[in-house]
Amino acid sequence: MAERTVSIASAHGLHARPASLFVQAVAGSGLAVELTKGDKTLNAASILGVISLGIEHGDEVTLRAEGDGADAVLDELATFLTTDHDA
Amino acid sequence: MNLQGVGIGRGLALGPVLRMPDPLPEPSDASSGVTADEEKVRAAGALAATAADIRIRGQRAGGAAKDVLEAQAFMAEDPTLRDDVDTRIVAGKTAERAVFEAFAAFRDLLTSMGGYMGERATDLNDVSQRVVANLQGVSAPGVPNPDYPFVLVARDLAPADTALLDLDKVLALVTSDGGPTSHTAILAREKAIVAVVGAPDALQLADGVTVVVDATTGLVTASPTDDEISAARSTMAARAAAAVTPVGPGALADGTLVPLLANLGSVAGAADALAKGAEGVGLFRTEFLFLDSDRAPSVAEQQEKYTQLLTSFAGKKVVVRALDAGADKPLSFLNDEPEENPALGLRGLRALRANESILRDQLSALAAADAATEAELWVMAPMVSTVEETRYFTTLARELGLTTAGVMVEVPAAALLADRILADTDFASIGTNDLTQYTLAADRLLGSVASFQDPWHPAVLRLVGEVGRAGALLGKPVGICGEAAADPALAVVLVGLGATSLSMSPAALADVRAELSRFTLDQAKEFAEIALSANSAVEARVAVAAAASSLTNTTLTESE
């Protein structure tokens, strides 16, 4: 299983537009990706789950995925999360 | 059938009614008789169809609405929600009930988180209603979107509704609830849409009925006669012709200048305001810089926006209001305490004082933007109640490098002591919406007391007169920046009471300019006396209208 831990770069956290774009990227990858913040783990393709984690700027989250190309997919998603989409 | 409500502006419209559909009833918890697997298929199909429909609407809407709708589409497709729906179906629920409950559970979760997440709860409700409507084979509640122009009739409109409204097709808005400061009324003023709000019987109007909507009188005429239709058409044609007359500075018939300024809520509105003849900005609301964030923007971020604003109005006056949070526009980082009566709570300057660093940052950003641009910048504090608050704000603004600082008069206490308040500051600007709410003790956001929210009330006008008198005595400017200034007949009265400038939605500038040019300062003062001596808002309005029309008729006879 591939795994990446990153800290969120967007100034307003993973809400609104960044959350929507992130979910879109996860859904587009075709892989089942898990997102963990603290002790909560959920399906990263769930916008309601992502929003309800209340992820703020600077929070650390962990992404996990299995299967073909999991490393490449996680690299791409990690890059997304470490880019400030509110800038 | 005739309906009476409160007209917004002076427009007139004629067209067929379309009703905003009522929200769907809660799906019943009875079992359906089909198997759980069949219910799951139904639910999956409805969720997918709804997501697709929302995406199409998003592409059609474009802009900011597209992002909101794209997020809503993902909510309909959400895999976690889908699992929850399936679990509830297995437990014996129908697809409708399972969808309803699953969305409600997420909505409650988001609401409990508050702030931005809480606001998304409205989006979830909208998606939930659409999926349930799809399952039940009924039309989804929401803004009608026909391919012909129509008069939209609703209980009241929420921002989410109006964001999706195709304004080119909306001839007029008629609501049963909501007063002159409701979201519907504000939208109507901003976009110059004909509107009558708070007409109690509006929901009895059926789809397809032709109506004449007259905002001047607040009257909606259903199924008008041929004569009434042709009268409405000729009035509309005459007004369209008058609207193309050239634009000059606002002035009374005797040449007394009354600068006409724009109320703006973002930098984006600047070009439109100038095109409509604004001589500057009388109220620039700064909340838009703060509302979408959970922290205050930095000095540099603010300075950039203020510089854009001041650059658009080079050589003109721009009055910027310090952040006005609270009551109808709470900001979590300013005041997170729940209050029993937010309109009477820690809001306006009170909230800024409790967070002085935010006020200092804002004033510093304004001073820096002022130094770099050519506009004439004035700043003012919202919701000032006392002489002491006036001194505090004026001193702080000067200390941070601003040359002209004033206060908003929205609280009766400030109006009654206007002579002392104005002695300690550079100018006053009267916010008539809040002044009316506080004078008549009627919540301006509450439909049930909307009839109290009328700035024509002689008690409100007397307070305006106090401020006007103090301004004249001390040689300090007194502006009006509430919705009252957008009512042409009332604008003349306000000038008669001592207002030296008027600020309003840019769409109202042409009508107010035309009305001011019909009367002299002495006549305006006479109207003010007539209005002050009335017993009620309605009496004041009627008496001034009668005096104005008798004057106009006399003038016509004399010139013959």
UniProtKB/TrEMBL annotation, chain A:
Superkingdom, taxonomy of origin: Bacteria
A Pfam family: PTS-HPr
Compartments reported by the entry: Cytoplasm
GO biological process, one term: phosphoenolpyruvate-dependent sugar phosphotransferase system
Taxonomic lineage of the native organism: Bacteria, Bacillati, Actinomycetota, Actinomycetes, Micrococcales
UniProt keyword annotation of Cytoplasm present: yes
Protein keywords: Cytoplasm, Phosphotransferase system
Function description: General (non sugar-specific) component of the phosphoenolpyruvate-dependent sugar phosphotransferase system (sugar PTS). This major carbohydrate active-transport system catalyzes the phosphorylation of incoming sugar substrates concomitantly with their translocation across the cell membrane. The phosphoryl group from phosphoenolpyruvate (PEP) is transferred to the phosphoryl carrier protein HPr by enzyme I. Phospho-HPr then transfers it to the PTS EIIA domain.
Taxonomic source organism: Glaciihabitans tibetensis
Identification of the protein by name: Phosphocarrier protein HPr
Main location: cytoplasm
Keyword Cytoplasm: yes
GO cellular component, one term: cytoplasm
Domain (HPr): residue spans on this chain: 1-87
TrEMBL record, chain B:
GO molecular function, one term: kinase activity
EC category: transferase
Top-rank taxon, per record: Bacteria
Keyword Lipoprotein annotated: no
Gene3D superfamilies, per the entry: Phosphoenolpyruvate-binding domains, Phosphohistidine domain, PtsI, HPr-binding domain
GO cellular component: cytoplasm
Binding site for Mg(2+): E410, D434
Location of the PEP-utilising enzyme C-terminal domain: 249-518
InterPro entries, per database record: PEP-util_enz_mobile_dom (IPR008279), PEP-utilizing_PTS_enzyme (IPR050499), PEP_util_AS (IPR018274), PEP_util_C (IPR000121), Phosphohistidine_dom_sf (IPR036637), PTS_EI (IPR024692), PTS_EI-like (IPR006318), PTS_EIN (IPR008731)
Ranges that cross the membrane: none
An example Gene Ontology biological process: phosphoenolpyruvate-dependent sugar phosphotransferase system
Entry binding sites for phosphoenolpyruvate: R285, R321, N433, D434, R444
Range of residues in the leader sequence: none
Annotated active site: H183, C481
Keywords: Cytoplasm, Kinase, Magnesium, Metal-binding, Phosphotransferase system, Pyruvate, Sugar transport, Transferase, Transport
Names of required cofactors: Mg(2+)
Role played: General (non sugar-specific) component of the phosphoenolpyruvate-dependent sugar phosphotransferase system (sugar PTS). This major carbohydrate active-transport system catalyzes the phosphorylation of incoming sugar substrates concomitantly with their translocation across the cell membrane. Enzyme I transfers the phosphoryl group from phosphoenolpyruvate (PEP) to the phosphoryl carrier protein (HPr).
Family: Belongs to the PEP-utilizing enzyme family.
Name by which UniProt lists this protein: Phosphoenolpyruvate-protein phosphotransferase
Species this chain originates from: Glaciihabitans tibetensis
